[in-house]
């Protein structure tokens, strides 16, 4: 058994192997440019890229809404649908379906 241990420990007696292992440990864990730091920064970059894509899609939606509201028909449609405005001498009927009405609590 002692012979078997000597066989596996022989490479670790070489000063170059020890220096290489020490250098690798230093670069992975302790250095200012360590792998752990770069891994965290890459995760932050990915999160920011996802956020950037989300805001670009929101900007596209807003540009579409601005384009629709730039015409008189678009403003009239928005006023009628959102604020329930009407023209003089006009009646408006709002139809709500059962699945669109908020459920009230039975306790109330």
Description:
By secondary structure, the chain is mainly α. The protein has a domain of 57 residues. It has four helices and no strands. The protein is rod-shaped. Keywords: Coiled coil, Membrane, Transmembrane, Transmembrane helix.
Provide a compact summary of the structure.
The protein is mainly alpha-helical and 108 residues long. It contains four helices and no strands.
Main sheet: strands, sense, barrel: none
Low-confidence residue ranges = none
Order of helices and strands: HHHH
Question: What is the average per-residue confidence, as pLDDT, rounded to a whole number?
Answer: 83
The coarse overall form would be rod-shaped
Q: Which radius of gyration do the C-alpha atoms yield?
A: 34 Å
- Name the helicity range: 55-70%
Query: β content, as a range?
Result: under 5%
Instruction: Indicate the structural class.
Output: mainly alpha
Distance between the termini: 79 Å
